[in-house]
């Protein structure tokens, strides 16, 4: 299906810009990286979305990751409906919080306890505070191009929207309004550079509270970790007494039931979750070994709180989503779809591209490759990507509007969706020449 009109989206975007900064509530949605008018979505079902102009769009954003079962899965919708009839928020404990925590911990047996928050940013921010509280150290390490939310200390050499929207991405801090004193407590290393990480620890090791990383990067496009890099993370943090924090906000329950921890054989001290554990509702969580989690208030001195943490509607959606994933174990299905999508894109390409994929996360870099680091990712031809994006959108395939974002697909993507996608990809590459 071709997109034939965007007049209502244009009108809504003009209206939105008068009352919302940039007309959007999250920067990448503004289409700044690709130009044109963002599509305002009216509804979604399965693998499909419909915008306000009535265009049918095959969705490869999936709300940036949580919709692993597709949009409006009947069982998840019914769970939300039932929870709504009981009330939307209590500010008091509920049984649903326990149920979801038990489901998460069953999939991550190395974690003993979990604390719910309302966003991925809250999860990573809280995990880092906990690491500092446990170790008594101030410095943290992150990796260039990894994005862990918009907390002050993490907007340093960040990826995603900061790369595409012209944010510095090249110096610390990456955002105005972040005091340099905060940024100075964040040390930046290169992803997939074990030697560089070793040099950093040789100089700063006794001051480092934690290393936080995206096990599979999605916020600079998909970057796949090397075994040597993962080994260095484990070895160096243990040697120097720093905590290792796996930011699984994007990869948790997507790459396997036990996320990247299971798929890659990781042994982190703390894990952060989001996206899928809320079944499309706002949620986040962090967890780990009991010896660390018992340092969180009210048991310990590390304070963290949230009025809407453990919101009953989000808990209900997350419980049903994780139950379905536990019952159906759809990861082989997702892997088969991804392998065929990846192969089809490679075969259709008429320009130099590198296709990086892990499970149901995929990025087409317009660069001959390889692309394993932030520095290699940013060499991509973003002008070619813009033409690729709009070519797909004009053919009814909604790819992420940034070269530096992962695309996602779901269990609702089947044979018909794959055929339509590859037909559109082939036509677009032929037009690009």
What does this structure look like?
- This protein has 433 residues and is an alpha/beta fold.
- It is 39% helix and 15% strand.
- It has helices at 7-19, 74-86, 95-107, 120-135, 161-164, 180-183, 194-204, 227-240, 259-264, 290-293, 312-328, 331-348, 374-377, 382-394, 415-432, and strands at residues 41-45, 48-51, 56-59, 113-117, 139-143, 186-189, 208-213, 243-248, 270-274, 284-288, 354-358, 361-365, 397-398, 407-408.
- The strands form 3 sheets. Strands 4-10-9-8-7-5-6 form a 7-stranded mixed sheet, sandwiched between helices. Strands 1-2-3-13 form a 4-stranded mixed sheet. A 3-stranded antiparallel sheet has the order 11-12-14, covered by helices on one side.
- The model is unreliable at 159-171 (pLDDT under 50).
Q: What descriptors fit this protein?
A:
433 residues; alpha/beta; four-stranded mixed β-sheet; globular
């Amino acid at each position: 299906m071709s997109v034939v009109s965007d007049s209502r989206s244009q009108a809504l975007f003009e209206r939105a810009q008068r009352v919302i900064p940039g007309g959007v509530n999250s920067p990448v949605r503004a289409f700044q990286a690709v130009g044109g008018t963002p599509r305002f979505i009216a509804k979604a079902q399965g693998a499909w979305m419909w915008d306000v102009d009535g265009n049918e769009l095959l969705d490869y954003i999936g709300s940036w990751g949580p919709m692993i079962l597709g949009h409006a899965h009947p069982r998840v919708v019914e769970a939300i409906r039932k929870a709504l009839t009981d009330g939307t928020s209590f500010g008091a404990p509920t049984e649903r919080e326990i149920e979801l925590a038990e489901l998460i911990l069953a999939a991550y047996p190395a974690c003993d306890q979990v604390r719910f928050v309302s966003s991925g940013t809250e999860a990573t921010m809280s995990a880092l505070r906990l690491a500092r509280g446990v170790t008594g150290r101030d410095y943290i390490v992150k990796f260039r191009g990894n994005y862990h939310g918009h907390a002050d200390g993490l907007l340093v050499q960040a990826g995603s929207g900061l790369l595409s929207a012209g944010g510095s991405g090249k110096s610390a801090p990456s955002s105005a309004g972040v005091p340099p004193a905060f940024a100075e407590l964040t040390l930046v290393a290169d992803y997939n550079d074990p030697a560089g990480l070793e040099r950093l620890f040789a100089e700063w090791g006794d001051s480092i509270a934690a290393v936080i990383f995206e096990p599979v990067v999605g916020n600079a496009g998909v970057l796949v970790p090397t075994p040597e890099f993962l080994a260095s993370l484990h070895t160096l943090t243990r040697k120097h007494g720093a905590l290792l924090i796996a930011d699984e906000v994007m990869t948790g329950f997507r790459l396997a039931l036990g996320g990247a921890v299971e798929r890659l054989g990781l042994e982190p001290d703390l894990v952060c979750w989001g996206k899928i554990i809320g079944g499309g509702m706002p949620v986040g969580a962090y967890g780990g070994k009991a010896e660390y989690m018992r340092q969180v208030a009210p048991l310990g001195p590390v304070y963290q709180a949230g009025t809407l943490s453990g919101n009953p509607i989000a808990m209900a959606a997350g419980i049903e989503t994780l139950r379905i994933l536990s019952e159906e174990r759809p990861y082989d299905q997702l892997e088969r779809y991804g392998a065929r999508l990846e192969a089809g894109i490679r075969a259709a390409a008429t320009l130099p591209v590198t296709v990086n994929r892990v499970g149901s996360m995929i990025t087409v870099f317009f660069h001959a490759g390889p692309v394993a680091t932030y520095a290699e990712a940013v060499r991509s031809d973003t002008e070619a990507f813009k033409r690729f994006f709009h070519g797909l959108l004009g053919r009814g395939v909604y790819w992420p509007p940034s070269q530096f974002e992962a695309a996602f697909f779901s269990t609702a993507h089947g044979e018909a969706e794959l055929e339509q996608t590859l037909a559109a990809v082939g036509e677009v590459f032929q037009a690009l020449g």
